[in-house]
Fold each of these.
Amino acid sequence: MNQSAQVELIHVSKQFLRQTGEQVAGLNNLTLSIHPGEVIGIIGTNGAGKSTLFNCLTGQIPIDSGDILIDGQSIYSMSAQSLARQIGRVFQDPRMGSAPRMSVFENLMLANKRGEKRGLGRSLTTNNRKYLIEKLKPFRLDLEHRLDVPIENLSGGQRQAVSLVMATLLQPKLLLLDEHTASLDPRTAKEVMKMTQHLIQENNLTTIMITHHLQDAIEFCDRIVVMHQGRIVNIYTSEQIETLSTTDLYQYLVDLVEREVLENYTV
Ligand SMILES: Nc1ncnc2c1ncn2[C@@H]1O[C@H](COP(=O)(O)OP(=O)(O)OP(=O)(O)O)[C@@H](O)[C@H]1O
């Protein structure tokens, strides 16, 4: 698979109909060009549209208007299988994205076969084991000795590490990280973040990372996109990030929420 895709969001809009009959903007005319190998951080207020963005990128939910291109090709002209091979995703919940009763090795081999029709049996070879042991070692989470353990017996950090390797094994064109360290303790989150950076650099992956850890956004991202009410309201460039503090970012988000509350008042 070719790595490092150019991703284009072109006037993407998605509305939802609440049970009350109210229309709510999941995404409101979103336009963004993401360059090959770029790491984009997405931060935003509650309900800003961050998850909707990921669900649209993976084709899980249809958009109302606009287009999404990966290397110039609309994702709507791709088969579900082809799109699945091009995008790796790691979720906030370590239980998502893997089969709990299957072993670490079996899960990894399943990920390695994404989009292929052949069964799992032929891929469970000694060479594959050796290859995966090398992939898992740098995490320093003792995973290389736990290849035959069912995923459900691993710690949250170990599961996220396996999910990361699963998501990047086929060298996808685009990696989506959906608050993937949010449920981990600070030490493990740091370890997983370090490994994330290693995998991104090793594979030169175009990456979009939703995060509430403002320090991670500053430390690991080339640009930080701020979302609010389905819109992109600010983009911090790498030059701006150099002098940006977590307090600046936090204050920007607080101001957005305060402005939203005050919008409901007239004087
Ligand atoms: N299936 C749905 N039906 C109705 N409304 C929805 C649906 N999915 C999302 N929304 C609405 O769309 C808006 C964007 O939601 P989304 O979950 O993408 O935000 P988010 O930025 O991921 O929020 P959070 O950080 O709070 O998880 C919100 O107003 C939400 O209530």
Amino acid sequence: MNALLELDDLTVRFGGVTALDSVSLTVQEGQICALIGPNGAGKTTAFNTISRLVRPASGTVRFAGQDLLRRHAADLAGLGIARTFQNLALWPGMTVLENVMVGRHARGRAGFASSVFGWPAAREDRDLRARAYAMLDYFEIPDVAHRECTGLPFGTLKRVELARALVGEPRLLLLDEPAGGLTHGDVRELGDILLRLRDEHGITLLLVEHHMQFVMGISDHVVALDFGRNLVSGTPAELRDSPLLVEAYLGTPV
Ligand SMILES: Nc1ncnc2c1ncn2[C@@H]1O[C@H](COP(=O)(O)OP(=O)(O)OP(=O)(O)O)[C@@H](O)[C@H]1O
């Protein structure tokens, strides 16, 4: 198995607050890895560091052997990294289809020649539209393709966000609280979708999630942080009865 994403000895400070303190974690290619921990543990900071939205004080982040800290946030889609956000980051006034198409633009290859002569861009646009429709079919929401996002049910919008992240064909998908705000039924369906992405499409997933039953049900590897530090990591079976984890969650069953 190959390590696709490696965080090593990562420290992030915001003024006097140390949000991450020498955190290390490895995500193996083709696995679902979950990052868990109580509020304020540093999960979002870790995500934002990988996404190049936050600059660490020290440590390294490597993706497919490359030093990610030498790349800009805008390069990530081209490298094969996509993410979703805790609060849906969709354009409310645009249609579902347009929102999904936006996810591919970062990887579009149309350059100077196409902007001058037009033809390859037009072909690329047709391809992109076809791919976006295919993604909506995959997520079983083709009927809302031409609806504006405003007013659609939350579970549908979550699928739109996933479709947008996947239309760029990422190798690694970062999901920030994907189960947050979903109904029981939607959470079950989301679990099935993520397992299919891993098993049928070979996509590696790293998710931040508070929904323990969901995490333990789908993850291959779980990394727990507490107060910005590595607390414990292992398979769901290894962690289920971890006293450290139970203590960090103040006795909440995991
Ligand atoms: N931009 C910022 N400025 C100052 N402090 C910050 C900033 N972002 C995060 N922090 C602090 O860093 C620590 C880690 O926060 P972070 O949001 O990464 O935790 P989390 O595990 O994602 O929490 P939650 O589960 O509540 O989302 C917290 O003490 C938080 O207050």
